[in-house]
UniProtKB/TrEMBL annotation:
UniProt cross-references to HAMAP family, sorted A to Z: TMP_kinase (MF_02128)
EC number(s) reported in the record: 2.7.4.16
GO biological process: thiamine biosynthetic process; thiamine diphosphate biosynthetic process
Protein name, UniProt field: Thiamine-monophosphate kinase
Amino acid sequence: MSEFSLIHTHFKHLTAPHQHTVLGIGDDCAISNIPPNNQLVSCVDTLVAGRHFVHETSPHAIAYKSVAVNLSDLASMGAMPYAILVGLSLPKSMANDDFCQAFAEGLAAACTPFGVELIGGDTTSSPILTISVTALGFVPHGQAITRQGACVGDVVCVSGTVGLASLALHGILDDLNGDGHANRPPESLPEKLRQAMQYPAPQVALGKRLIGFANSMIDISDGLGQDLGHILTASNVGAVIELDAIPSHALLDALPHAQKWQHQINGGDDYQLCLTMPSAKLDLFKTQNPDMPIYPIGQIVADKGLVFLHNKKEVDLLVKGWEHF
């Protein structure tokens, strides 16, 4: 299959045209209009087979997650997703209709709920399956939520359950060989775990609703401890976290505390939001948005560092999130 045949057959008409697209797939570049009084927000993530997903992962799930992790980045700044560009590097054995059709359907499944358009990209042959997605979004001028705004006294919150994706990955990887192959296919996992690992839900609507409420925000991709640490460093503050307040699940609660906390603090891949806001604004947000629960798990303090408590006693936990190298 040629590059142009692959693009025309599987990707050119994959998503609905967006009102801000002037020119999409089919030329050297895409052309877009930026809405008045908005700023462009952009991000890129690259996923590599054997490093970011096990080789046994279905092409549908690979494509979906490649998009979802980028939409989660946009959500963490309160931005509304607009479009994506996809760089797809394929081994020749995968450059066929079966793989590309399932992959395209996974892209569409992630894009369609948010009205996101695929406006361009590139394809090439490669020894290793690699997907690089660039996502574009818009946020009202000057209202993006960054990592830098956490204030002493802010409540630290998360948007949902933390640790399930890590538990899922632990359940399928062979820790002894470290080659990115699974002991068993992801499809054999309990549905809740498989969904958490392969089909995370970007918190786009919540992120947008938090504009004017949250002082700082980040998405949980590399581990709650490490990602919250980015907020603390950028804001020059510290935090105290109540481990028992972190939203959990029965599958995690069944584990010994040390294992459960390892998944929650260092596991990553949750793509929930971690944010800080004044307690008065938290109360107001809950009143005005009863359909969007967020969960307080701690407080921003002046002393630098990250302190964990269990039953009001300090717990010594090493924060070591996902390492990209």
